[in-house]
Write a structure and sequence with these properties.
The protein is an all-alpha fold and about 110 residues long. Helix content is about 65%, strand content about 0%.
Length: about 110
């Protein structure tokens, strides 16, 4: 599929439907990655690992960690759903998802190495 080009030879901005679908997918991924992250983290902690994140270290092995790791992303998702979809905000949301994908991949690697 060829990108649409405006009258000035510049690519057109993505449609609002494309932005909405991308935002919704990124939000689902953010929630999923956070849930998998805390699940793997608690599994690893139960098998002798230590939490690398100094902010999460005091609560990582407790049920409070689930509240933090799911509660914050739910708040982000709620905020994103009520604001207009901007490309910069969407790029930032996708970047956060990419970081969490890396964290989950690393934790999964560690879990399979036990």
């Amino acid at each position: 599929m060829q990108p649409t080009v405006s009258g000035r030879g510049q690519p057109s901005a993505p449609s609002s439907d494309t932005l909405r679908r991308t935002r919704d997918t990124a939000m689902i991924l953010l929630l999923t990655f956070n849930g998998v992250d805390i699940g793997l983290t608690q599994y690893l902690l139960g098998n002798g690992a230590t939490e690398a994140n100094p902010l999460m270290r005091p609560i990582a092995a407790t049920p409070v960690a689930w509240l933090v790791k799911i509660g914050i992303p739910v708040a982000v998702v709620a905020m994103q759903r009520t604001r207009p979809i901007g490309q910069k905000r969407l790029v930032a949301l996708c970047a956060v998802c990419a970081v969490y994908a890396g964290v989950v991949a690393w934790n999964a690697h560690l879990a399979t190495s036990l």
